[in-house]
From TrEMBL:
It comes from the Bacteria. Pfam families: Hydrolase_4 (PF12146). This is Serine aminopeptidase S33 domain-containing protein. Residues 93-220 form the Serine aminopeptidase S33 domain. SUPFAM superfamilies: alpha/beta-Hydrolases (SSF53474).
Amino acid sequence: MHTASLSINSTNVRNLIALGSLRTGLNTLSRLAPRLAMAWAERLFLSPPRHAWPAAEQGWLALAEQGELHTVGLPVAEWDGKPMRTYRWGEARKGKIALMHGWGGRATQLHAFIAPLTAAGYQVVAIDAPGHGASPGKQASVLHFAHALERLVRNEGGVDGLIAHSLGGAASVFALSSQHLPVGRVALVSPSADVAAYARHVGRLLKLDNDILAGLQHRMETRLGMRWQDLNAVSLATTLVQPALVVHDQGDREVPSSTGSALASAWPGARFTLTNGLGHRRILRDQAVVDQVVAFLAH
């Protein structure tokens, strides 16, 4: 799964030699200095990858009205008060739709939705979470994402709809549940859900022993002021009232489609669509998916 705050996974670590070195280093350090091993593992968990904007996204950057919102009240001092880049496209003749990207992503990854939404009379607003896109910072977590979304939505005085991808989906569920954000309809694409399950997955990938993984969990929960189990999107979805659509691909190698199915089942009245052959990111550019999401939000 691609959730809360991890950047070390089978997609990002394509070089098996580098992965082997990480495993060896972490396991050696865990025997000699467990606290240092936990600190290193935590840094890996909280450090998102950054990628250059492809040409298709650069055009949408040029068309956007860009601005800034600042983080306020994040649980760790060095994370607080940082600027976050915001984007705006189109005019709000019929309303506003917010976009929330995923881990290691940026707002313009969801560019395929912008043209049909603005053509339908919606203004599209988006934000780069801390440590992502054009926003500064080197670390992030699901709480950063939820905070970024809350700042964006409240700055707009509420939005008529929301599209969120991957970790942005989990963060959206948390923000909707805990902050009661003024959001109309919600479309989640390839959403993640469970921090603890993903941590176990990455722990296995890096061959961390159970003691190190438990210590890492305690360390991160203390810093964030939040238990991982309290961030479980499937559990939180049972409290939500917004009309929702969840779209997930059965071949997703980063977040299994069973996650999206479980989330839709837990969310009262939510609809679930299973696609095939689109994976975790190409699904964002598939015309049939885009058409379905836009039609759902414009209902």
